[in-house]
C-alpha cells in the first residue's frame, strides 16, 4: 500500500531517526511494511536487517562469555599438524595457562587452536572456542567446552579482546597475523591497556620482527617503543609468565 489516490506526496517524511525529503520520501509507513504479508523476502538481506544479526551476535557472545574467569587467547594456524612440535607446544601452553589459573580462548578450529584447547581440557580448565563461518573450515574442535560460532569477523575479534587479558601467538598464517596486528594496534593506540602479547617460536617470528625493526621502525613508520608491545620466546613457562604477569585476578 502506498499513498492513497488524490493525496499529495509529502515533501518530508520521518521514519524513526531517519529524515527523508523530496524524491527520497518512501510510500507507506514502517508499521505498514512490517505487517504487510505480501511481497518478497529480499528484506532479510538488506543492511538494516544485517545490523540486527550483528547485534544478536554481540548479545550471544556477551551472554556466553560474561562469567568467564580471567582468560588468555591463544592464536595459531589451523594447518598445524597434530604430530608437530608446534602442536605439542600448543598443548603445553593450554595446560600451563589453566594451571596458572586462566581459561583458554582460541578460534575453536583445528591445528594450533585445537592443541591449546586440548591442553586446557586435559588440565580440567575452561576451554573456549570462538568459531567463524567460513566456506572451507571445519566446526569447533572436540576439546571446546564453551563454543560460540560467529558470522562476522569483527564481532569475533571483539570477543577475543574483551574476554582475554593477553594473547599468546603460535606460528600461523594470514588469520593469525590479522589477529596479532589487530591486538598490537589496539595496544599502540591505547584502546586497551596492560595487554601483554607473546609470540611463541623465535625462529618462526624472526623475519617479521626483523622487518618491523629494520624497515618499519627504521623508515619512521613506527617507533622503537612499539617493539616493546610484544615479547618473543621459545619457552612455555616464560610465555605463560609473560602473558599473565600483569593480570590481576
UniProtKB/TrEMBL annotation:
Gene Ontology BP terms: cytokinin biosynthetic process
Biased composition (Basic and acidic residues): 8-24
Species lineage: Bacteria, Bacillati, Actinomycetota, Actinomycetes, Kitasatosporales
PANTHER family: CYTOKININ RIBOSIDE 5'-MONOPHOSPHATE PHOSPHORIBOHYDROLASE
One term of GO molecular function: hydrolase activity
EC number: 3.2.2.n1
Record's GO cellular component terms: cytosol
Species name: Streptomyces filamentosus
NCBIfam families: Rossman fold protein, TIGR00730 family
Family membership noted in the UniProt record: Belongs to the LOG family.
Region (Disordered): 1-33
Keyword presence, Hydrolase: yes
Protein name: Cytokinin riboside 5'-monophosphate phosphoribohydrolase
EC top class named in words: hydrolase
Catalyses which reaction(s): N(6)-(dimethylallyl)adenosine 5'-phosphate + H2O = N(6)-dimethylallyladenine + D-ribose 5-phosphate; 9-ribosyl-trans-zeatin 5'-phosphate + H2O = trans-zeatin + D-ribose 5-phosphate
Keyword hit for Hydrolase: yes
Pfam families given in the database record: Lysine_decarbox
Keywords: Cytokinin biosynthesis, Hydrolase
Domain of life: Bacteria
Amino acid at each position: 500500500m502506498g499513498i492513497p489516490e488524490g493525496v499529495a506526496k509529502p515533501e518530508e517524511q520521518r521514519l524513526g531517526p531517519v529524515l527523508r525529503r523530496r524524491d527520497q520520501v518512501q510510500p507507506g509507513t514502517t508499521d505498514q511494511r512490517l505487517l504487510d504479508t505480501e511481497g518478497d523476502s529480499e528484506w532479510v538481506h538488506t543492511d538494516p536487517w544485517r545490523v540486527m544479526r550483528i547485534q544478536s551476535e554481540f548479545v550471544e557472545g556477551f551472554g556466553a562469555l560474561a562469567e568467564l574467569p580471567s582468560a588468555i587467547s591463544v592464536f595459531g594456524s589451523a594447518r598445524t599438524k597434530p604430530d608437530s612440535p608446534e602442536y605439542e607446544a600448543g598443548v603445553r601452553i593450554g595446560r600451563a595457562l589453566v594451571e596458572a589459573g586462566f581459561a583458554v580462548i582460541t578460534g575453536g578450529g583445528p591445528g594450533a587452536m585445537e592443541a591449546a584447547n586440548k591442553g586446557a581440557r586435559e588440565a580440567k580448565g575452561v576451554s573456549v572456542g570462538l568459531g567463524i563461518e567460513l566456506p572451507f573450515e571445519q566446526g569447533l574442535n572436540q576439546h571446546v567446552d564453551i563454543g560460540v560460532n560467529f558470522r562476522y569477523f569483527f564481532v569475533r575479534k571483539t570477543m577475543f579482546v574483551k574476554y582475554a587479558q593477553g594473547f599468546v601467538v603460535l606460528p600461523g598464517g594470514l588469520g593469525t597475523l590479522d589477529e596479532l596486528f589487530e591486538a598490537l594496534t589496539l595496544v599502540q593506540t591505547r584502546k586497551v591497556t596492560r595487554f601483554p602479547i607473546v609470540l611463541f617460536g623465535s625462529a618462526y617470528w624472526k623475519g617479521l620482527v626483523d622487518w618491523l625493526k629494520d624497515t618499519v621502525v627504521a623508515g619512521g613508520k613506527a617507533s622503537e617503543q612499539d617493539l616493546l608491545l610484544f615479547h618473543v620466546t621459545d619457552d612455555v613457562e616464560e610465555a605463560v609468565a609473560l602473558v599473565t604477569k600483569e593480570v590481576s585476578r
